[in-house]
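ok trying again, last paste got cut off:
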Amino acid sequence: MTVSYPNVRVKNEAGRLVVRDGFVLCLYLRASHRALASRAAETLEAYRRFVGPDALSMYVDEHGYPARLTESGWTKLMGEVSDESRNTYSLMVGDSASEVSDFWVEYLGRGMDEALLSRWPDAVSYISLWFPSEFVDERGAAAMRSFAVDVWERLPCSHAFAGLSFNYSRGADEADAFSEIKKLCFSHPTLAVHHPASGSFDIDSRVESPSWLNFLSRTILSRLGGISALSLGIHSPEASVEPLAGDGALVMIGARPEAVSKDEELRPYREVSEALKAHLHMSHFPFPEFTREETRRWVGRFLLLQL
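nice, full thing came through this time. structure:
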């Protein structure tokens, strides 16, 4: 099946590509880095096998500067990720130091005993994995779904989502990127706007607004009354709810990720959003360059009544 995606390519005034259409798998983890270390490394290795070792060519070093990624460098990074003696660990790996990466890995394993968390008790760790839309089209929806489910089952996730997205430059051009995303996003409502670096501070066991694949942990599912209760509010044949290992559930909208914007095409997204409404994540931290009200509008874009 061909994946339907828009051709979004936006450059900033300096001529650098800062926003492009893509696909994201974002996983929120209510666990410390020490508890996640080995499984996080296994997940990142699985991603590299899936996309191919040549897809990742640079990483951000401990001083915040881009550096060339070699095979020995990757091995060193994975050794650091899997080191359970570290209280926290962060990692960013991609394929471009100057523009938005096609392939990108971002991991933040928090120390859940950090003094910071006394102020933000709902903070979680996260893993964000990016792909270019062309890769998704080439591999197909079934392969992307299988990979996402496999990753979910490796990790103690509280919530995860996967689908088409606005992918963006990190670092110095991030503000430019989000200024452009703000102009485009409501014309492409099924492309995720995502920024887990800020949203992970207070998501806890809440969920992001609907994407193609929506993973719910046992904790979230129980608050919704279980699969049967959740399914009662979702009538569209394009949306399905199925059980996952660990008593979680996967809410899937359509057989493949699609960029749609017509009211009838958005019906399953509206039904899923209404079913999850009480648990949608409205962060204290707006997206970069968005106001809190603009972020709220985006999170509630599929609801009959705005948050």
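cool. Residues 9-299 form one domain. The longest strand covers residues 17-29.
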